[in-house]
Design a protein that fits this description.
Blueprint: E1 3-8, H1 16-29, E2 33-38, H2 46-49, E3 54-58, H3 66-77, E4 81-85, H4 97-103, E5 105-109, E6 116-122, E7 136-140, E8 144-147, E9 152-159, E10 172-182, E11 185-190, H5 198-201, H6 203-216, H7 219-225, H8 234-237
Parallel strand pairs: 1-2, 1-3, 3-4, 4-11
Antiparallel strand pairs: 5-8, 6-7, 6-9, 9-10, 10-11
């Protein structure tokens, strides 16, 4: 049985407890054994992190000690999957650049605040995460992010919809869902998730999360079946 760790905390406005329970229940239905922890102390033991197939962060803002970032970075680089949504992954640990490097992006603004209606446009390609999903509407905050150009974008939304300072620039298609790799590990992110109920109002968002978490959890299996050297990134990592 695969194992997943969900850690939660931070600003209550993103409903971390509700989101953690939702993701935990979904993972249990997918056959995972799930542990839910409060705060980042669970990241202090690197050997413990290596026992999981998937880590799902659900905090907002806050601080993360350097050794905890190093531990989770190491675990993901060795095949432990990382998957999360807005309220817990790319709106967390805003001063931790290594966290941002690993996750692939960072929230910077939500012009218009809550209640903006926008379209999530699916980028149809070869990813099993988006197979059979069509464009869908969301009424929530629309997120402007700073993005790692290496991510594989699976869904976007068009800016601007609101006449804020950014509107003086040309229209842009902002990533909403992406995947990337961190060493030998798989990373999945979905920017939806301002409130827990966005996954009720837009069921396709929950399908994306379930598929994304499942995809991310496959890193260890892939590493075991491949000829990749799990140590190949270690010397460079020691420089940090």
């Amino acid at each position: 049985m695969k194992k997943a760790l969900i850690f939660q905390g931070g600003w209550d406005g993103h409903e971390p407890a509700l989101v953690s329970r939702r993701f935990g229940k979904a993972l249990e239905q997918l056959g995972f054994s799930v542990e839910i922890e409060e705060g980042v102390d669970c990241l202090a033991d690197r050997d413990r992190l290596m026992t999981y197939d998937l880590i799902v962060p659900c905090p907002t803002g806050g601080e993360i000690p350097d050794h905890c970032v190093r531990n989770i970075s190491y675990a993901v680089s060795r095949g432990v999957g990382l998957a999360g949504c807005h309220g817990g992954m790319c709106d967390a640990f805003r001063t931790a650049t290594e966290w941002q490097f690993m996750t692939g992006g960072q929230w910077v603004s939500h012009p218009g605040g809550d209640g903006v209606e926008y379209t999530v446009n699916i980028c149809h390609g070869t990813s099993p995460i988006t197979e059979g999903i069509t464009d869908f509407k969301v009424c929530s905050e629309q997120y402007y992010l700073h993005i790692d150009p290496a991510v594989e974008v699976l869904a976007t939304t068009r800016f601007p919809l609101v006449n804020y300072y950014h509107a003086a620039n040309k229209p842009v298609d902002m990533p909403v869902v992406w995947t990337k790799f961190w060493g030998h590990g798989r990373v999945f992110y979905c920017s939806l998730g301002h409130h827990d109920d966005v996954f009720d109002h837009s069921p396709s968002a929950m399908v994306l999360m379930e598929r994304g978490m499942l995809w991310a959890s496959g890193g260890k299996e892939y590493l075991e079946k491949s000829s990749l050297d799990p140590e190949m990134y270690e010397n460079s990592a020691k420089m940090y």
